[in-house]
Amino acid sequence: MATIQKGTKEDIDAAVSAARHAFEKGPWSRMAASDRALCLFRLADLVEKHAHELAAIEAINNGKPAHIAKIADLVLSTKTYRYYGGWADKIKGSTLPISGPFNLSTRREPVGVVGQIIPWNFPLLMQAWKLGPALAAGCTVVMKTAEQTPLSALRIAELIKEAGFPDGVVNIVSGFGDIGAYLARHPGVDKIAFTGST
User: Fold this and answer.
1) Which residue range(s) make up the domain with 125?
2) Which of 31, 71, 91, 181 has the greatest number of CB atoms lying within 10 Å of its CB?
3) Which residues pair with 98 in a beta bridge?
């Protein structure tokens, strides 16, 4: 069906470096939260616009019937990107009373570069579940796809670019478990998110 480049440790290093640069020095770290939200909303619109194509890719990707992917995976993925787009400019801290005539203020900030590893089942939806909250919070991402199902994630990467995300904000690497293990231990990654974790 397709030939996909097998990711290497050097690819992970390059992806982490790009994500670190986008987080610390690129426009993502200086972008208003409302502009990050717009990127997520545009991505949701593009996923919706290309639903037929993405459903066909998902059928090739993991054997799911295309009509099921279209009415389930794609609808839920679109809703996920819109949901987290709505949160991007609503993440706030708290002001707490403490002893004496003082208040303690907290400010929530992005953790930095997030390494994400998604499984083969529901690849479109798993990708949305991982990307949405990290991007809404202002983090940058290095995602390792399952070796069995990289196709839809790679097409979403093209749509991410089209949606106006700056270079280096989202990095997708396809490969086997050794690459995922390398990503999970990478010193340039601030947080690891597997499916089932946030």
Assistant:
1) 9-92+109-194
2) 31
3) 102
Contact 181, 7 (CB under 8 A): no
Nearest CA-CA partner of 55 in 71, 40, 69: 69
Residue 195 — pLDDT band, cuts 50, 70, 90? low
Distance CA 140, CA 20 (A): 7
pTM confidence score = 0.92
Output the CA torsion sign for 61, 64, 66, 72: negative
Question: Which residues lie closer than 8 Å to 92 by C-beta, 6 or more apart?
Answer: 108
Confirm whether 21 is domain-assigned.
yes
Question: What are residue 191's phi and psi, to 5 degrees?
Answer: -155, 145
In a domain, 1, yes or no: no
Question: Pairing relation of β-strands 191-194 and 170-174?
Answer: unpaired
DSSP 77-136: HHHHHHHHHHHTTT----EEEETTTEEEE------SEEEEE--SSSHHHHHHHHHHHHHH
Number of structural domains found in the chain: 1
| CA-based nearest residue to 145, from 68, 57, 78 | 57
According to the model, what pLDDT value does residue 198 have?
45
